[in-house]
Amino acid sequence: MTWQWFHRLSSPKWFYQISGRWLPWIMGISLLLFSAGLYQGLFNSPIDYQQGHTVRIMYLHVPTAFASMMFYVILAVAAAVGYIWRIKLAHMAAVSAAPVGAAMTFLALSTGALWGKPIWNTWWVWDARLTSELILLFLYLGFIALHQAFEDREVGDRAAGVLAMVGIVNIPIIHFSVEWWNTLHQGATISKFEKPSMDPAMLVALLLMIFAVLLFCTAIMMYRMRNEVLSREHNKSWVKEVVGQ
Amino acid sequence: MKPLRKRRLTFVISIVVGLGVAVGLTLYALNQNVNLFYSPLEIVSGEAPKGPLIRLGGLVVTGSIQRNPDNLKVKFQLTDNAENVWVSYEGILPDLFREGQGIVTMGVLQQDGTFVASEVLAKHDENYMSPEVAEAIKKAEAEAKARVKK
Amino acid sequence: MTMQEFFHMGGHGFYIWTSYAVGTVVFIGLFLMVKFQRDKIIKQLRRRYRQQKSVNEQNSKTTASSNKAG
């Protein structure tokens, strides 16, 4: 049946082998993109007509904010797949996505504060965008804490998974908060369907950094999944072979 | 799909949909409270309370800024292109404060309809360009305006 | 652009460089944490496998001796 690929894809052993082959490439490309993006963002792009040099914080703020939301979607979808089909690898993916997403949310919030102080004149304001992003951080931390609270890892997978699925409603709220309500935070520039209203040199820097951050986060998530595979499948003979004596 | 999986799938979907609806309704009900600031239209139409600390946001009206040469007191008008509200403030303004700029102020609405601000925050838009490009656009706009006037 | 201008960033150097410093720390931290986690897991598993092996050897020894006796 066509479900065969699904089962092959969900085999921890297959994942461990294929990820081992891909990871050096993903990591290498990510580092290349990082160096190109940093060069473009810090040296080779113009200052903004209103914000001056502070616009350079955007090249770190927007990619991390985007990753913080994307990895939550990955976390919730993985948790749902694991919950419904009882696929072990999906739960491992969910558990591995959480710390990466939490780190990106933290970065988005802290770079946002460092950008807000010179431009808005305040580190923090309780507007809808900033508050919903802070809730996202608590959702990630709640997932991690809830998962660790259970002695039985599989019960923890399911309990924390339900929290992850519930929290998905926060993602559209974060995204549309700047359109639905009055906020201090400005609207989105790139996700508009029109041409982005941004200097081409700035756009290049931003896109390079977005792909660099996404690839790096994917790599970290895959490294974490490999660790989960080893730890959870430790009774399998192939794991014994990999770990060695 | 096996019945057990179907039941789990239904459970997941009902949780997400149910909670989505609940959160959506709550946010809709709280709509005004989620807004960070009142617009000048809401101030003039009397929707904003007089007395408590509130936020007012809008664009600084061109030509309305009156600076006091002796101290840091400043008066300006904020607009949402529907109504204007006078704001007075004493203190240091953010770098981005200028005519036409979107700002958010925190303060108290007076009985006479003016706003006394204790904090001024600058809002910036989602357009990013180099000063040269901004200058060129400004020039082009001015030329277009002059042509229309002729 | 001189070095000094570059680090000064039009007076906003503090905010920009702090942002990038925090970013660097978090990215490197994520990578190092994963590496430490892997080392820890491998160490734990190796110890566990050694224990299992010695238990197995003892079991086979006792079964062998009991077989002899029987």
Automatic annotation (TrEMBL), chain A:
Keywords: Cell inner membrane, Cell membrane, Cytochrome c-type biogenesis, Membrane, Transmembrane, Transmembrane helix, Transport. GO terms for cellular component: plasma membrane. Its main location: membrane. GO terms for molecular function: heme binding; heme transmembrane transporter activity. It comes from the Bacteria. It is found in: Cell inner membrane; Membrane. Pfam families: Cytochrom_C_asm. It is a multi-pass membrane protein. GO terms for biological process: cytochrome complex assembly. The chain crosses the membrane at residues 21-42, 62-85, 92-114, 134-150, 162-181, 201-223. The keyword Acyltransferase does not apply. Residues 12-185 form the Cytochrome c assembly protein domain. InterPro entries: Cyt_c_assembly, Cyt_c_biogenesis_CcmC, Cyt_c_biogenesis_CcsA/CcmC. Required for the export of heme to the periplasm for the biogenesis of c-type cytochromes. Belongs to the CcmC/CycZ/HelC family. This is Heme exporter protein C. The lineage of its organism: Bacteria, Pseudomonadati, Pseudomonadota, Gammaproteobacteria, Oceanospirillales. The gene is ccmC.
TrEMBL record, chain B:
InterPro entries: CcmE (IPR004329), CcmE-like_sf (IPR036127), NA-bd_OB-fold (IPR012340). One of its GO terms (cellular component) is plasma membrane. Its main location: membrane. It comes from the Bacteria. Keywords: Cell inner membrane, Cell membrane, Cytochrome c-type biogenesis, Heme, Iron, Membrane, Metal-binding, Signal-anchor, Transmembrane, Transmembrane helix. Residues 1-8 are cytoplasmic. It is a single-pass type II membrane protein. Heme binds at H124, Y128. Residues 30-150 are extracellular. The keyword Membrane applies. The chain crosses the membrane at residues 9-30. Pfam families: CcmE. GO terms for molecular function: heme binding; metal ion binding. One of its GO terms (biological process) is cytochrome complex assembly. It is found in: Cell inner membrane; Cell membrane. Heme chaperone required for the biogenesis of c-type cytochromes. Transiently binds heme delivered by CcmC and transfers the heme to apo-cytochromes in a process facilitated by CcmF and CcmH. Belongs to the CcmE/CycJ family. HAMAP family: CcmE. This is Cytochrome c-type biogenesis protein CcmE. The lineage of its organism: Bacteria, Pseudomonadati, Pseudomonadota, Gammaproteobacteria, Oceanospirillales.
From TrEMBL, chain C:
The keyword Transmembrane helix applies. This is Heme exporter protein D. NCBIfam families: cytochro_ccmD (TIGR03141). Required for the export of heme to the periplasm for the biogenesis of c-type cytochromes. Its main location: membrane. It is a single-pass membrane protein. PANTHER family: HEME EXPORTER PROTEIN D. Residues 50-70 are annotated as: Disordered. The keyword Nucleotidyltransferase does not apply. Keywords: Cell inner membrane, Cell membrane, Cytochrome c-type biogenesis, Membrane, Transmembrane, Transmembrane helix, Transport. InterPro entries: Haem_export_protD_CcmD, Heme_exporter_D. It is found in: Cell inner membrane. Belongs to the CcmD/CycX/HelD family. Signal peptide: none annotated.
